[in-house]
Amino acid sequence: MAQQTDRTGDDIVFEARDLRIGAVREDGSELPIVKGVNFKVRRGEVVALIGESGSGKTTISLSALGYCKPGLSFTGGEAILLGENLTNKTTDELRPSRGINVAYLAQSAAATFNPSIRINEQVTESPVLHGTKTQAEADEKALALYHALELPNPETIGQRYPHQVSGGQLQRLMAAMALCGDPDLLVLDEPTTALDVTTQIEVLKAFKKVIKEEGAAAIYVTHDLSVVAQIADHIVVLYSGEVEEAGPTDVIINHPQHPYTKRLMAAIKPLPEAGQGEVSSDEHLRDDAALAAVGINAGYGGIGPNGEANIPVLRDINVAIERGKTVGIIGESGCGKSTLARVFAGLLPQTGGDILLHGDTLPRAVTDRSREQLQKVQFVYQMADTALNPRQRIRDIIGRPLEFYMGLRGKAKRARVEGLLEMVELPVQFADRYPHELSGGQKQRINLARALAAEPEIVLCDEVTSALDTIVGANVIDLLTRLRRETGVSFVFISHDLSTVSSFADEIVVLYAGRVAEQGSTDSVLSPPYHPYTKLLISSVPETRIGWLEEATETSEARSGISGTVQLTEKGCPFFERCPLAIAGTCDEIAPPRRRDNAGHIIECHRELSELG
Amino acid sequence: MTGLILRRLGIGLITVLAVSVIIFFGTQILPGDAAEIRMGQQATTENIAALRERLGLDKSYVEQYLHWLGNFVRGDLGISLSSDVPITNLIGDRYKNTLFVSMLTALIGVPISLALGIMAAMFPGSLYDRILTFISVTLVAAPEFFTATLLVLLFVFALGIGNAVVVGSTDGKGFFELIAHFALPIATLSFVIASQLIRMSRAAVLNVMSSPYIEMAILKGVPRKRIIFRHALLNAIGPIVNVVALNLAYLVTGVIVVEVYFGYSGLATLIVQGVQTRDFVLIQGLGMIFCLTYVILMLIADIAAYASNPRLRHPK
Fold first, then answer.
1. A282-527, what's its fold?
2. Which residues in chain A touch residue B206, judged by CB atoms under 8 angstroms apart?
3. Structure letter (DSSP) for residue A281
4. DSSP structural state of residue B86
5. How is chain B split among helix, strand and coil, in percent rounded to 5?
6. What is the pLDDT of residues B50-77, one digit of tens each?
7. Do B213 and A114 make contact, defined as CB atoms within 8 angstroms?
8. What are phi and psi of A411, to 5 degrees?
């Protein structure tokens, strides 16, 4: 590793001095994105850049590699890496330091690995190309990193292609790719945001360990303060391309000064605890369920000779969504949450069981449902970006269901579109805009307005806040709460984020590998007795407390469960491999019994309820 | 992977069968039948009936179809109605001409076009890229006879090299002699396929170049050449091989203007003759050969695309 000191003799690895980055508009005028930012990163130190999307945090972090996203350019100031300013260098001049002095970890490892090249070649590529290591030395270093990052089968994992390993493993492999060249500075851009809580813990732990062992400095970009509290030494709070506040982690977390930092702290989701679930007014409540699933089996890969799916996912799911209530569906990726929403919507016809709308059986396939039935159940997708037609104005996107279901035209339609925009708290002028002119949170509101235009009784929300920043996501949740109160619509709220679900849902269904692990009112699910899986999920939600990560990884749930992956099993309890309470010979052989207490709280487990503290 | 290829083979076979049905019954709709056409002026009712029986035309359409298809599989394309010789004899030399021209064009035109297109993708927006874009768009718009005329004017009349038409036989000629023999048709066709290949290979590579893993490679300090040839090209093979295959199929079946212009006889002129003389046995035979050419080339393209995709080569 190049041991260099900077001009002042202090051990500074990177410094931004009055750094300015801007975009050039079509008319030639300049749009400033980063407006004079100053901060320093010393050796062995992790500096977190936090802020919402649009705060310029990614743009600033990339300046440490002398890189600007297409369309942006350095307009002033300096980005000094190991004593050298990068802002006026060409790509060829920057190449020797990229991957060797400074390395980058992106948000999505799945998109960052080349799908056509084996993992080991990509991990070792940079040092070998730069000539700082021979292939053999780089292979050795990579192997050591695979061990340090606790990857399964470290000897052979490099011979795989990226699609052959799991998301959490790929995220750690990206860390190996960044560290293989022994960089002085690591730039980590939201490296855990797209992960499940259980995977996030595991990846965070691995990152923290290797950053310490390798003695590298790091810039850690995130919007998640609880993650920052675990990993950063210093925090720089950014808003709209400017530094609002900077200081040591414990000062910023425990004594924030700036109003914006306080707002960020306030938007931190409360930990999932009993007693905070929304209790809706009785005004809209009735006895009958608006939508119910009875004994649903469903899966993929075509239907086999026994009438079940060749790749069965959901098994015997029973959920009733009462009018005006919210049912939260939670679990890690691969647990069948979206599959269940698709069954409700008729996009994936179930192989067994029934979906009831007000007690009447709905046809299995969406194509067989009547217009009236379709109208009652609406779907809101996670990715507003891809769910909204980019070539249609907002007016047409919201107007289409009004025409289709309500037969509205002309003036009446226009008035209703404006009414819906007001309902989702957007200015009526937005009707003439195109989706790309809106921010992520605004697009998600349009997405909701489109669903509400049909005046549905049930809205299926599939991870609608997962792609949004904390503050924006919290605002969308507030909006959903208000809409439910005002319109009496029911929500099925699918999320891998237990904190969000628990603040909003009346009832929670915890899915694991296509089976219900636990189900009941929000309070009963979040208080003992717990299913071991629920307990693992609850204990994995990061707390904004310094030192939490170390404690969390020491619990028995974490030790046995965190590094596992969701696997569908033919027999026994699918959680067996990850369960601290598993009974060998029973749990892996026999499907767990469905235990229920008087309040309708269900836990599927071989252990007695009294054992599940 | 093997399963995928077998399935793809099956789909190809079904395509060929479906086309054979369309070709056979499509030509049955034409007025008159083989016996009437063959007898021409000497047709009497008895003559025709006798010939019909000899040709099997008195049998049901389904039996005729199966008989025809069985013969085709054995390589017997039937007897030409207009010239009374086996179709295979008619095709013989012409197939050789067509094959030489299309293969040589593919060998010369395809690599040059791909190289030009990929180079354009390496430096998007550069002067080189813009000039190449201008030329290739112009070439797309220029009809074949126009390109051919320009080439003849330039080489034959201005520079005095070669002949304006293809003369003599290909017998006994070596590789370079063949290139010289068909120089102008090959050049014309290379220009025709170049425009599309350049545009498509440029677009395919540029599309990959905007993906996050290419940005990652840039941030790892990987040199531009390696980014293109190791990181980008592997992921652009699928779309590129499909365009190449479509263009090769065109070279075998659609080059009528070039054949007529340079005065050599290939398969494309033959099928036009078949239509002019209402020789539907010939049309059926050639139709099947063209269909097979397309199906086989697209099959090869798809297998190449599968092979370049690690998700299919190495399933989880």
1. Rossmann fold (3.40.50)
2. none
3. -
4. B
5. 80, 0, 20
6. 777 777 777 788 888 898 899 888 888 8
7. yes
8. -65, -45
Q: How many C-beta neighbours within 10 Å does residue B193 have?
A: 23
Reported as type and span, the H/E element at residue A141 is helix A135-148
Give the Cα-Cα-Cα angle B267, B271, B277 (nearest 5 degrees).
140
What is the domain count for chain B?
A: 2
> What is the domain extent for residue B280?
87-313
DSSP state of A98: B
pLDDT tens-place string over residues A416-456: 999 999 988 889 999 999 888 888 888 888 999 999 999 99
Q: What is the pLDDT of residue A468?
A: 77
Instruction: Tell me if A116 and B235 make a contact (CB, 8 A cut-off).
Output: yes
Q: Which amino acid is at A241?
A: G
- Model's pTM, two decimal places? 0.77
What is the Cα–Cα distance from A308 to A164, expressed in whole angstroms? 27
- Look up the ipTM and state it: 0.77
What pLDDT score does A558 carry?
Answer: 62
pLDDT of residue A600: 79
Neighboring chain B residues of A129 at a CB cutoff of 8 Å: 221-223, 226
Check whether A488 has a pLDDT greater than 90. Answer: no
pLDDT, tens digit (0-9, with 9 covering 90-100), for A265-303: 877 767 777 665 555 444 444 456 889 999 999 988 778
Helix (H, G, I), strand (E, B) or coil at A347: coil
| CATH number of the domain located at residue range(s) A12-266 in this protein | 3.40.50.300
Q: Who's near A407: CB < 8 A, 6+ residues apart?
A: none
A207 close to A191: Cβ distance less than 8 angstroms? yes
d(CA A479, CA A491): 12
Q: Looking at B49, B73, B97, which one is the last position of a domain?
A: B73
Partners of A320 in the β-ladder: A292
> Per-domain residue ranges for chain A?
12-266, 282-527, 529-613
First to last CA, chain A: 50
Pairing mode, if any, of strands A507-512 and A515-521? antiparallel
> For each successive 10 residues of chain B (316 residues), what is the average pLDDT?
86 93 82 68 75 76 88 85 82 85 91 92 89 87 88 87 77 82 89 89 91 92 90 89 90 85 87 83 88 90 87 77
Tokens 């201005």 belong to which residue? B158
Average pLDDT, chain A: 86
DSSP assignment, residue A174? H
Residue B185 CA, distance from chain mean position: 15
The answer to whether the A12-266 and A282-527 domains have the same CATH topology is yes
Average pLDDT rounded to a whole number, residues A139-166 = 88
State the angle between helix axes of A410-423 and A394-401 in degrees (0 to 180), rounded to the nearest 10. 110
Tens of pLDDT, residues A528-562: 888 989 988 888 888 888 888 888 877 766 666 66
Spatial separation of the C-alpha atoms in residues A532 and A603, rounded to whole Å? 10
Task: State the best of B123, B211, B220 to mutate against chain A, taking most chain A CBs within 10 Å.
Answer: B220
Instruction: Mark yes or no for CB contact B314/A161 under 8 Å.
Output: yes
Q: Which of A67, A97, A129 is closest, CB to CB, to B222?
A: A129
- What one-letter code names the amino acid at A538? I
Beta strand A352-357 pairing with A12-24: unpaired
Mutate to test the interface with B, among A69, A100, A114 (most CBs of B within 10 A): A114
Peptide bond into B315 cis (omega under 30): no
Task: Report, as an integer, the average pLDDT of A174-201.
Answer: 86
Residues B169 and B254 occupy one common structural domain: yes
- Give the distance from residue A175's alpha carbon to the nearest chain B alpha carbon, in angstroms: 13
Give me Rg for the CA atoms of chain B.
24
Residue B294 lies in a domain: yes
Structure tokens at B108: 């010369």
End-to-end CA distance of chain B: 12
Asked if the model's pLDDT at residue A118 lies above 80, the reply is yes
Give the pLDDT confidence of A408-423 residue by residue, as tens digits.
Answer: 888 999 999 999 999 8
**Assigned domain for B197 exists:** yes
